Task: inverse folding
């Protein structure tokens, strides 16, 4: 079995409640693209062209691994988690995919980059409201892309509805903007 | 008499130069070097009383400076050759240097196929070489500072040096999309422009409401931003220019990943919320959103 995580285990938080995805099988080769993703995340290079070219047509097994990885990451690793949401959002095919996006859009607020469970002290940084909500905002942006092609998409609307009920102001605002009849890009 | 006067005058001019020994710009009397003002044979005046220190921070939001601090800094540092590049201080940790160099290389590699009028006015084309030159013509050095504490990633402190950028450990300690780090860096680089009063921020209005009528608050402290120097009244300031930069990257970058373009759009829309003048807002809407 190849090493699942390239990044140190200290980045992995306690296992979250993982919904039953027992029906989805995982093959050995499904780990290859997860390993490739780990290397990109470690590099902190969001402009790696492989993000656009090498993660299309993910198999159900690969997507299950990506979701598992997402849930295992500490919630403070917002860019890493957001990148996984971004890749899964490009590969939506079934109910499990939509269920995941709804789950992310509905996540509770992360209160600080040092510790999501505690409010920070001292002055904030530029753009922190976006950074703290990043994975949820990415989920909404991926749903928005679907709605731009299929305005009547029921599952995409479900993701937006989850965002509308979010306790994170930045998420609720973006969901409200997307839900408007002619939402601006 | 000449043997006594000349060394004294040379010493006076040594104080007037913003020494950057690594670039050989320091006048050591050996000939060559930058053009010096004409000699004036008069007694040296007493040095002006030093400013008490940088602007006291309220702690509600990011690091800020007052127009008075910017003016004082321009007086103290006025004889400054145009920046031709920057250097790291020795105490910048290697991991921060590496991240900063990688991020700046990302900016320098951007290619684009257009630019809005406001972007053209501030940065020129959406083009990495232009972004690199823009940064390097403003920033002379990068060092480490707490930037008032809190979660700031970077700052410029005119009192200490109006052309120097300070990074904090948060540059690498916390997880940020790459675009957001560069947004901060380019926002702060705008603050180095002494000739423009360092583009100090405007005071946010009271009450300060978002377009849904909710009070704008610091995400950290929950404190209201009303009355804080955390807004801009012009598209050309640091919030405005970084909004314009990011929105143009999201619209026109031809070699950015979709993630980068998405991120640039997300942060641009967020920063736009700090523009409080209706005329400035409309100008930016016409430029970026139509």
Result:
């Amino acid at each position: 079995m190849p090493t699942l995580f390239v990044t140190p285990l200290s980045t992995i938080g306690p296992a979250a409640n993982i919904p039953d995805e027992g029906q989805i099988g995982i093959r050995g080769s499904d780990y290859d693209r997860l390993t490739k993703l780990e290397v990109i995340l470690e590099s902190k290079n969001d402009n790696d062209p492989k993000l656009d070219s090498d993660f299309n047509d993910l198999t159900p097994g690969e997507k299950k691994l990506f979701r598992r990885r997402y849930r295992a990451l500490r919630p403070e690793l917002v860019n890493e988690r957001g990148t996984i949401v971004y890749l899964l959002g490009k590969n939506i095919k079934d109910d499990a995919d939509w269920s995941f996006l709804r789950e992310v859009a509905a996540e509770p607020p992360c209160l600080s980059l040092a510790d999501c469970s505690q409010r920070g002290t001292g002055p904030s940084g530029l753009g922190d409201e976006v950074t703290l909500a990043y994975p949820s905002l990415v989920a909404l942006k991926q749903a928005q892309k679907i709605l731009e092609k299929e305005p009547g998409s029921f599952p995409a609307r479900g993701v937006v509805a989850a965002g509308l009920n979010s306790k994170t102001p930045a998420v609720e605002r973006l969901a409200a903007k997307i839900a408007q009849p002619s939402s601006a890009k | 008499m000449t043997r006594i006067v000349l060394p004294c005058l040379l010493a006076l001019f040594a104080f007037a130069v913003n020494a950057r020994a690594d670039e050989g710009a320091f006048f050591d009397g050996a000939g060559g070097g930058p053009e010096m003002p004409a000699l004036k044979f008069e007694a040296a005046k007493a040095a002006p009383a030093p400013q008490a220190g940088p602007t006291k921070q309220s702690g509600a939001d990011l690091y800020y400076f007052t127009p008075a601090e910017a003016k004082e800094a321009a007086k103290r540092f006025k004889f400054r050759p145009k920046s031709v590049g920057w250097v790291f201080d020795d105490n910048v940790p290697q991991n921060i240097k590496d991240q900063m160099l990688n991020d700046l290389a990302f900016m320098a590699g951007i290619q684009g196929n257009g630019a809005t009028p406001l972007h053209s006015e501030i940065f020129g084309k959406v083009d990495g070489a232009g972004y690199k030159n823009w940064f390097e013509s403003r920033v002379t050095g990068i060092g480490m500072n707490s930037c008032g504490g809190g979660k700031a990633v970077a700052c410029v402190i005119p009192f200490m040096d109006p052309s120097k950028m300070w990074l904090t450990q948060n540059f690498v300690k916390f997880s940020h999309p790459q675009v957001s780090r560069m947004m901060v860096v380019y926002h702060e680089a705008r603050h180095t422009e002494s000739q423009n009063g360092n583009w100090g921020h405007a005071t946010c209005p009271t009450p300060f409401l978002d377009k849904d009528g909710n009070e704008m608050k610091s995400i950290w402290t929950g404190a209201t931003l009303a009355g804080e120097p955390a807004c801009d009244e012009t598209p050309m300031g640091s919030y405005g220019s970084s909004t314009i930069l990011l929105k143009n990257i999201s619209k026109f970058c031809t070699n950015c990943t979709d993630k980068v373009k998405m991120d640039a759009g997300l942060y641009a829309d967020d920063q736009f919320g700090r523009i409080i003048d209706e005329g400035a807002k409309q100008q930016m809407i016409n430029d970026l959103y139509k």
